[in-house]
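ok so heres the complex, two chains, lmk if somethin looks off
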Amino acid sequence: MTRLPFRTRAAHTFQREVGRLAAAFWVIPIAFILRVLMGYRIKDVAQVRARYRALLKESDHPLLICPNHLTMMDSAVVAWALGGSWWYLFHYSRMPWNLPEYNNYSSQLPTRLGAWLIKCIPVIRGGRREDVSRVIKRVQHLLSRGETALIFPEAGRSRSGRVEADAVAHAVGRILTSVPGCQPLCVYLRGDRQQTWSTVPARGDSFYIDFEVGELHSDHSGMRRSRDFSRQIVDRLVGMEEEYFAGR
Amino acid sequence: MTRDEIFAKVVEIVKPFVKSEDALAAVNDETNILEDLKVNSARLVDIILNFEDEFDIEVEDEDADAVNTVGDAVALIEEKLS
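and the predicted structre for the whole thing:
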């Protein structure tokens, strides 16, 4: 794993610490927006959070959260569903770093500042490989420091409304192969009223969430190994989706 | 294998992933695989894995980061074969 330049590492430390100091002023309001203004509910939320906390107690490996992707609020809903709000104030390293598409929020300074505060690392999807690589190295660095990150293993929001097994983002496997001990947490999230992809979930929706640590294997090395890992995660999400629909 | 032969094979491998046929017709060393040929970035990985199979080489992620143009791909393969 390549060591980041001092300046980049210092910038991450600064970003994390400012976010931590201000956490009460953004973690709680975001939870309020999700819970009260949007009226979202997580099914069996106490059980979900207890399972997640038990999982974290069992293992201190770096955790890469890999959810399916249907709306632009998935990362916020997943983080809220797994950790709640108050809990993150005392376990700030467990608030996942996110990789939002820069062009989705870059038009105004307040949204850029807001994204910076809430542990976002901007990425331009489909951009130059060197630039994407720099972002991946930043995530590798953060994971190796005990932080948690969230990255969507599908290349974008699923247009079909189902996990798209052909749309595999290579970056997930690349991160997993390069951070020693890093474990993928496959997460399947879906609102009851979510038929296909959208910008935000329907107001008042109830979310089903399930998760499990992915077990990955590959006989290959290099890029082929990274690709195998990415595919296995997406395949597991496909399986979790089948379980969801079978159980309805 | 000569550079021209590598170039021709690279173009052949890239061809099925290209969305801009016009750019493909005028392909040269400076042609950007993502921007000019409109190849989906997720497919670039498949292309590089096809290079591995075709030329019997192994490419690491870090090597692949340098591949932006067709000329970059040819240079990488030449380096791996040497």
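quick notes: The helical segments of chain B are 3-14, 21-25, 41-55, 61-64, 70-81. thats all i got rn
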